[in-house]
Amino acid sequence: MTTIKVGNEEELIKKLASYIEKISNDAILNREKFFVGLSGGSVVKYLCEGLPLINTDWSKWSIAFCDERVVPEDSDDSTFGTYSRQLIPKTQLTKEQFIVIKQGVSAEEAAKDYTQKLKELFKSDNFKFDLLLLGMGPDGHTCSLFPGHPLLNETTLKIAPITDSPKPPSSRITMTYPVINNARNCIFAISGSGKADMIKRILKEKEDLPATRVKPEGSLYWIVDNAAAIHL
Ligand SMILES: O=C(O)[C@H](O)[C@@H](O)[C@H](O)[C@H](O)COP(=O)(O)O
After folding, report:
1. What is the enclosing helix (H) or strand (E) of 19?
2. Ramachandran class of 221: left when φ > 0, alpha when ψ lies in -120 to 50, beta otherwise
3. Protein residue with its CA nearest to atom 5 in ligand 1
């Protein structure tokens, strides 16, 4: 695990973008494709501001969601909807490059459908992402994997439904650890004093919380700004 400390949110956005540029270009050079998973929450802002600055072959990108809210695409809560409005117009990405959830169905059906879409994307049951971009909530959750929730121990489903998410909206789908920890790279990008206590509990005290359980086969990076790293 590598912890990268930066001064503030602006520097975090630039640092994150530079890592994504390098990882995407390595993947494209070696495998001619780049499979990336995006999160919602504050990561959306970091990516919508940082990604338009990078040099990459956008046509080689396939984009999935580490978790997604089961809501209509035009809802303000839809993670895809937000990237579609705020990122696509600033890059050469097209909507077709995003793996989106099925509309108008239950979380359970959306999770099954999403699993099938990933099988088609990877042409395999082995979902090997080049990079997962992760956030962490103030309770230590990541993706839609919340403290004490039975999904923390899910080993069969790769994409799971959740209908009791403590963070609204309650109905979501999420990657589970078998997919997260199979990734080539995972990056957490964390900014602000509201995350400082949890950063200490996870990175210093190594408390068993959902974000602590992210231990990918590949590389793990935590990019943390001064306000979030104050207790480290
Ligand atoms: O859809 C979501 O809610 C996210 O994907 C979620 O996993 C997010 O990354 C964390 O909740 C952190 O969110 P914040 O960075 O906004 O605290």
Report:
1. helix 9-31
2. beta
3. 40
Ligand 1 atom nearest the C-alpha of 68 is 1
CB-CB neighbours of 11 under 10 Å: 16
Please report which confidence band the pLDDT of residue 186 belongs to, taking 50, 70 and 90 as the band edges.
Answer: very high
Task: Report CA-CA distances (Å) from 110 to 96, 167, 171, 228.
Answer: 18, 19, 10, 34
Ligand 1 neighbours (beta carbon < 6 A): 39-43, 67, 69, 79, 135-137, 141-144, 167
**DSSP 8-state code for residue 229:** T
Residue of 32, 107, 19, 18 lying closest to 62 (CA atoms): 32
Q: For the complex shown, is ipTM > 0.90?
A: yes
Residue whose CA is closest, atom 9 of ligand 1? 135
If you write DSSP's letter for every residue of 173-205 in order, what string do you get? EEE-HHHHTT-SEEEEEE-SGGGHHHHIIIIIS
SS3 state of residue 32: coil
Please name each of the domains of the chain with its CATH number: 2-173+186-225 (3.40.50.1360)
Residues in the chain: 232
Q: What are 14-49's pLDDT values in tens digits? A: 999 999 999 999 999 999 999 999 999 999 999 999
Nearest CA to ligand 1 atom 11: 137
Q: Which amino acid is at 68?
A: E
Residue range 81-120, pLDDT digits in tens: 999 999 999 999 999 999 999 999 999 999 999 999 999 9
Give the model's confidence band at 72: pLDDT under 50 very low, under 70 low, under 90 confident, else very high: very high
